[in-house]
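Sample entry (177 residues):
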Amino acid sequence: MGELEAAGIQWHPGFYGAAELEFLSNKGELEFYPEFTLSKEPVRMDLLVIKKLTDVRTENELGHICVLSKNVREADVRGFVEKAKKLVEPGDRNNVDAVLQVSVSANKEIYEAIRRCDKVMCEAMRELMKEDLKEREQEALFKTIKNLMKNMKLTAEQAMSAMEIPEVDRAKYLAKL
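Predicted structure, serialized as tokens:
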């Protein structure tokens, strides 16, 4: 993962997410400990996975770790996205999001090519990152509200009215102020 660090990409969350997705069918039989301290000295292991039951066979699921490479193949990205969009549990979706954040950061050209050429795959990626996109949109709106209040001397209500933010959404922005 040195190539990702060299590019300034924080790969740990994606690696943890990929590891949990790799063993999805054994979720109940395994325990995952990120940044596990091996001793009293500051020696850490990136991820420790413990099999709780000895009579359980672990299965590798989808090959998620390969999409964390800076040299990922387009076929691997497409395969990951197709399989990942079937995952619906919140923890699994968070893991998918973590993997995608690293993979997209490391392979912008491939994801851009997929986005331009394949509308179905683009929609699948958008669906997978829906929560992240919504959160970014809300942050941008909140920042704009604050800028209008500061620079135009508007009240929060006036700023939200000018931006045509629906009444039902205004309370969450007021709470953040």
